[in-house]
Amino acid sequence: MTTLIKSPVGRASARPGGRRPLTHLQRDALAGYLFVAPQVLGIAAFVLVPLALVIYFSFHEWNVLANTFTFVGVANFERFLADPQVAPVMRTTGIFSVALVFFNISLALLLAVMLNRSLAGITFFRTLFFSPVVVSLVAWTIVWGFLFQDNGGVNGALELVGVDGPNWLREGPTAMVAVVIVQVFKNVGLNMVLFLAALQGVPQELQEAARMDGAGPRTIFTRIVMPLISPTILLTFIITIVGSLQVFAQIAVLTQGGPGISTTVLVYYLFQQAFLFGEFGYGSVLSLVLFLIVLVLTVVQWQLRKKWVFYEN
Amino acid sequence: MRTDSAIETRPAETLGQGASAPDPHTVAGRAAILKKNSDRSRTGRRVLFYLALAVMSIPFVMPTWWMIISSLKPISEIFASPPTLWPANPTFDGYVKAFEMQPFAQQYFNSLYISVLVTAGTMLIASLAGYAFARIRFPGQNALFMVVLVGLLIPSEVTIVPLFQIFNTMGLINTHWPILLVSTFGAPSVLATFIMRQFFLSLPIELEEAARLDGLGRLQIWWRIAMPLAGSALAAVAIFTFLHIWNLYLEPTVYLQSPELFTLPQALTRYTDAYGGQLWNVQLAAATMTALPVLVVFVLAQKQFVEGLAQSGLKG
Question: What are the ABC transmembrane type-1 domain coordinates in residue numbering (chain B) (predicted)?
Fold first, then answer.
């Protein structure tokens, strides 16, 4: 290598228009810029510029029909503070996220513990529980909408055990329950797989040693397994919260935010204001609110990741 | 402790089983009794365990099953009470109507070509960027990587309003361009870049150094040395990108207005009668046609699917 660098004449003769060592580094850097250019320019054009525009637009009012774009100061922000729908929408968003995360994580953990053994047919069951993850989201939602009809499959099943089921999607509280159910069963398989991987990382020797010392399965689980997989649980927790804030298709297909505004979460409200009512300025304010919530959650996630890095590899 | 008492209550029963009954007073005998007892209760426990799993799997499996069989039922049977687990008079009526009521073949093609194009584009862009961020040193690299990571931080729902306005100004509303461009170059591809970078970081660098001494340029090293080794990472990227685009709903709803431009998720929701009531058998037939091919591929390539999607879950 040193001989190569020190004999530019030799290299020049081997390659017409030969390069000096410095140019070699430069060429490498140029390659680096060219390699990352599509991605970096794409992010700039489709993420950074729009993000700046959200802020800019939140101070403006854009009337599509009249094609006017006017500066309105903080009017959109004032509207947000005075909007009587904001409180219920935020409450709905919070209830939805908490319910979703609670049931998703508990069920995923339960399934992972149950399926973390080598028995005949275990892989088959893992496949079954994972399968909704790959079913088209809207198709999955449509089937559940079908099952949740007043005379649909869910009430049919309830009738068999003598329960007169509600008209799920027509009443506020049950509509919320329905949306949560649809989303939980759709994605629990993903968290289950993450937990399974974490459980398989718990050293067998530790559990054996505890068993030798007379610890029962419950003690082993709460005292040894849980602490060891807690980083995965925490991260999954935050990923699932952020995901729950982005739930849109399920609500648009299942309830359109209704009945009333009982299932209108922030993303759906934003979509409604901007794209159904043409309130782009106000929609921008709602986008900013969504961004701030996700930002806080992500920063928390990063801080936690710094504390518990050992799960990463 | 518990095992001891279990032995204490059992000896009579075990002893009665034959001349070769193990002696509970020797270590070997105790072990034999323990094994026998646990064998018996283990079978029972296993049956219960499988039963519990089967019951728990109902809400995971039943909807898909229900979608498929209901799509084959005539409209008169679809809400029959009690529900029929298998169509009494199977019919492909719903399937035929799905194509008659909307340009469903065109919509299917739209979804397919958009998903394939975005997936291929993402694999190319992400593997190039991921490789450069992992291997090449250039000034400003860390800053540029941070810029890319911002894409992970910002949900696409946050930027949909200004993106709509940008594309509206450019006259690209009601075309596939916004979906193609934003999905390939924007936020959705960042996760892919991140995963490719992680993968290339884990590759031994010696291979590339040898190639560099042989005078290969970066593009050749990337294409001829690094990429052929990146199969697993590329498969993961391909799977989660394809599924993400195949399922995209908000963006098509915002950008597309003409039925012949719709993608499948959007089209599925439009099977209604003149009064806005849902035509369930048609809708479920279309849903089946949307979901089933992906499910089949999943069953064939489970390992890659689970690994690929788990990666996107962890890093996302």
Answer: 108-301
